[in-house]
């Protein structure tokens, strides 16, 4: 899936907003998702190769924001039911386990 320049900008902003609303640091997210800070930064910057990882982080942040009682910022490009997207692995996304490595 290729995002337009506007979608890339919006998605990065939506990730940042939800990270702030969840009151979490990159280090805290990395620890909870059992990965490195480098990997979380790559996902936030849309530099991660695995498309599933972005959706895993998206779902994680939406859940964490909801746990605070706040309303999450909706994701515009990362929307809909990911199970129906042929280029994503819905089972892996559902597992919440990020891909291996920092690429």
From TrEMBL:
UniProt-recorded name of the protein: DUF2316 family protein
A matching Pfam family: DUF2316
Native source organism of the sequence: Listeria swaminathanii
